[in-house]
Give the backbone structure.
Amino acid sequence: MTKPTIRKKHSKLKVALLSPILIVVFIVGWGLYFIGQTEHPKSKQPPKPNIKKPAQPNEIELIAIPQEESQIITK
């Protein structure tokens, strides 16, 4: 089984209408890429190590709260 070698050609009108759009998209994309690269020159440096301070123990005091006894009211 062989595939046909005939390819559908794009019409000249379609190419003429799409080429300016593709050129604008390419220029905008390239410009944004270039701006993104020059905006953050510090990002190429290795990140600073995150030094954590030792946690200070909190002084927490636990106490038991006595429950009140229920009083039976008698008349």
Observations:
- Residues 12-39 form the longest helix (28 residues).
- The mean pLDDT is 79.
- The two ends are 109 Å apart (CA to CA).
